[in-house]
Amino acid sequence: MTLISSKNISETDIRLLPVDKAALKGISAGQFASRDLYRLRLLAEHAQLISGFDELVCLESLEFAPFDYQVRAAQIMLRRFRGRGMFCDEVGLGKTIEAGLVLKEYLVRNVVQRVLIVTPAALVEQWREELAIKFGLPRFTTSADAEFRAAGAKAWERFPLLIASLATARRAEHRARIAQIPYDLVIVDEAHHLKNRNSASWKFVNDLQRKYILLLTATPVENDLDELYNLITLLKPGQLKTPREFRKQFVAHGDPRLPKNRGQLRDLLGDVMVRHTRSQVNIKLPPRQASTIRLGLSQEETDFYQAVSGYVRAQMRTSPFHLPIAAPPDSEITKTLPGSDEGTEGDKSLRQVDRFALLTLQREIGSSPQSAEPTLRALAERAHRAEQRRELLELADQSTRIQAWAKAEALEKLLLTSLRDPAEKIIIFTHFRRTLERLAERLRGLGLSVVTYHGEMGTPSKNQAIADFEQRAQVLLSTEAAGEGRNLQFCRTMVNFDIPWNPMRIEQRVGRIHRIGQTRDVRIYNLSARGTVEDYLLEILDQKLNMFELVIGEMDMILGQLSDERDFEDLLLDIWMQAESAEELHDGFKQLGEALVQARQAHQKTQEYDEALFGEDFSAE
């Protein structure tokens, strides 16, 4: 890969520099920087020789090829908007890519040093993955990292490149400290969450010290034009004058959603907004078809699932602590349990880590009984009562005695049918390593060529696994790790062996194969065991929401209509834990399904309104 180009550098640009004695001393002592830092330094030196942003220096160091419209959007943001503007492309067209280009360009030119990226909680890790894999920026810390939490109150100042969830950053205990930090660049994803200037979210961003600020949203207006005013005010205070003057000049009397003086308003918005539609960029994907394979568990699997679910319900209901929902990919609870016994005592209360273990346990039994064994034994070691310890150990022993595995048997039948063509390939997603390893053993026993991919593999091993899958293997067995940042469009079929409780995880999986470059129809198979949490979840996502017909990126927009304060998984868990009978469980999920339908309808209305309001007036073309 070419690191720098001689283009735009004349002979007069070449000059002698003074000797850096400190650097020479370090070299003589055998001290060298990493290859990534060396490449960034070369790019920075090159960038200093180029004035303006007519050429993006960062393009030479990317691990992908952005579309022309994305490059032009970044150039407009850098040149015309001077780093203060809003990317408003339709869902799925790459607002993250456009913002990433601006970020990388500023970094290689040494224009910014301190960066804060604020996103919904579900997108924090996805942002880090994209920046690392696509843009070669592995140095970002997240507010969920152990090193960040260990730094305590000083963490916000300590880490100059930071990705944080909006819900975390806007908390009262953090806001005042963050507001004192002079950020060079602030990026806010899903910025429609800032639409209300009286909200904690809007006030938090407004209080930030920022030289440059990028807002990303596909729907800058959801309810009325005041929301647009509030977003623009974060970018350029006074651009639309005062709220009263804005309404008088640009809002139709009696209808807060209807603009007047459109031409003048369009000119003002053109100073801060870039927006592309699908029809403009002409991006089309092949059709995709989703099928759900519902199956019944064996009696021993059913007994085990009900016993563990009963235990989890009982313990959850007696715990007063807030439940941390978002389980990381490849989680192995035995690695996250701390050794100390410090905390609340007694069998009627569990510490947060134990509640996390219980949530993990409930998910594990939906994947395979054997996946739950380490968690059951870890919980037994921490149990305060002998009776509780005995119950957990009995469940752990029971998990190892179960011979039947209905989901694996259904998968084997599917593969033997789908892989009759030796050129066909299938990726199978599971959340848990123990499930992955057992499946790999079984499928290899059928004579299938299988490669595995998981989060604990090093980068060379991961790259080799993807290469082996593309060149020779029929099956890729993967945890969520391949659902982030990997392009697998040479494969057209995927299986969700277990269903993530976060629908955006499902969407990310689908996006690995249903993406630009895919030339064949995409097939998605979901395995679902009757009576499990995942079965109820899949039913409402598929039948009520038609999830597998949505554009990639649309799910977050819909879930955002449900609640700004609570994760979808919170809502899901509440229903599962509070139900006293099958009827209550059915009613609870029915209500959640109806809420999703209403959320999608609200999202569609917002899309239609924004299309009518903005049209194709703000493209980078």
Identify the notable features of this structure and list them briefly.
disordered N terminus, 27 helices, 621 residues, six-stranded parallel sheet, alpha/beta, Rossmann fold, seven-stranded parallel sheet, single chain
Describe this structure in words.
With 621 residues, this protein is α/β, with parallel strands linked by helices. Helix content is 48%, strand content 10%. It is built from 27 helices and 13 strands. The strands form two sheets. The protein has a seven-stranded parallel sheet with strand order 3-4-2-5-6-1-7, sandwiched between helices.
- Write down the overall mean pLDDT: 84
The end-to-end distance, rounded to whole angstroms, is: 29 Å
Question: What is the CA-atom radius of gyration, in angstroms?
Answer: 26 Å
- CATH class category label of the largest domain: Alpha Beta
Query: How much of the residues is beta strand, in percent?
Result: 5-15%
| Number of DSSP E strands | 13
Principal-axis shape: globular
Summing up helix and strand content along with how strands pair, one would put the structural category as: alpha/beta
Question: Can you count the helices?
Answer: 27
CATH H-level homologous superfamily name of the largest domain:
Tandem AAA-ATPase domain
| CATH domain topology of the largest domain | Rossmann fold
Largest sheet, in brief, is: 7 strands, parallel
Give the oligomeric state of the chains in this entry, treating copies of one chain as homo and distinct chains as hetero.
Answer: single chain
Low-confidence stretches: 1-14, 320-350
CATH architecture of the largest domain: 3-Layer(aba) Sandwich
Percent range of helical residues: 40-55%
Strand order of the largest sheet: 3-4-2-5-6-1-7
Number of domains: 3
